[in-house]
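Module 6 notes. Inverse folding takes a fixed backbone as the condition and produces residue identities as the prediction. Think of it as a translation problem where the source language is geometry and the target language is the twenty amino acids. Below is one complete input and output pair. Work through it position by position during the lab.
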């Protein structure tokens, strides 16, 4: 829905949020970090999430309560412009599991802000390579983590085509996580698999 800021005032719209749901927010238009801030406020007026004007607001934490939430645009100084906001009620992240040398897991991330997660069991000091194929998401990140969320090795950057996160040494016996995070409003699908030399 478009909102035209004709003077340096606050602009907002409200929506009904449901406890446990996550949100993301697209913004298009000329606002930026120097000209506006955007907030999502809970029914009590507390900030749930914020970003610069015009910037994508990635997945929020799950909403704490059901009620009337507010998206607030706060132009800085005397700045004015028009912007279009699109609020997304995020589905659960795409997920699946595999084994080392097992079948690839297809992930469909069709809503901006939706991520992907693939798990697999690994042994201490085992060397693995993570493969991404059939990538229509475009830009994003690929990260290998322990079950506790500690990153293993470097982050790989998704782009056009196939990507590998090669020769990662697993620190301990664990169920590992492969996290896929599309950049900004990118959506699409890809397939994740894991091999060992």
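Target side of the pair, the amino acids:
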């Amino acid at each position: 829905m478009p909102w035209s800021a004709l003077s340096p005032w606050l602009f907002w719209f409200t929506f009904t949020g449901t406890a446990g749901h996550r949100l993301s927010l697209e913004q298009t238009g000329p606002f930026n970090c120097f000209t506006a801030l955007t907030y999502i406020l809970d029914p009590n007026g507390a900030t749930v999430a914020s970003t610069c004007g015009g910037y994508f607001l990635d997945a929020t934490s799950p909403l704490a309560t059901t009620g009337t939430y507010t998206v607030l645009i706060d132009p800085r100084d005397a700045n004015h412009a028009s912007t279009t906001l699109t609020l997304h009620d995020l589905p659960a992240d795409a997920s699946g599991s595999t084994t080392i040398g097992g079948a690839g897991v297809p992930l469909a991330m069709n809503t901006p802000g939706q991520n992907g997660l693939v798990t697999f069991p690994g042994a201490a000091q085992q060397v693995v390579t993570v493969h991404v194929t059939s990538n229509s998401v475009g830009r994003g990140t690929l990260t290998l983590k322990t079950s506790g969320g500690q990153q293993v090795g470097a982050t790989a950057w998704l782009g056009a085509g196939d990507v590998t996160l090669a020769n990662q040494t697993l620190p301990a016996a664990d169920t590992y996580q492969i996290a896929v995070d599309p950049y900004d409003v990118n959506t699409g699908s890809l397939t994740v698999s894991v091999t060992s030399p």
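Reference fact for the lab report: The first strand starts at residue 2 and ends at 4.
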